[in-house]
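Entry type: protein chain
Record version: 2
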Amino acid sequence: MQYKIPVQIENEDPIFAGLSLRQLSIIMAGFGLAYVIFNGLAPRSGPEIALLPSGFVALITVLIAVFRQYEMTFIPFIMALIRLNIFPRERSWQSGIDSYQPIDI
């Protein structure tokens, strides 16, 4: 008996407003953090001042949730960027040395 395996199994299906479950959970967690920040700062500094840091957290959360660059989400993109800056950009061949690094495998 043969089963057909879907080719695009890693694609996320949109659930609400074009957002996937992962994106919605990131937004809910970030907005929850922004709400906690707002409630902690509002009694001492006023709602207008407390809106600035909580709004900044909410904005960064939305940017992280909807970020997609070269078919990569935020975390893999940041990891690739860190790896690009840590390892040399140019490789030179040396006799007797393997041409790969263990992290490339």
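Comment: DSSP finds three helices and no strands in the chain.
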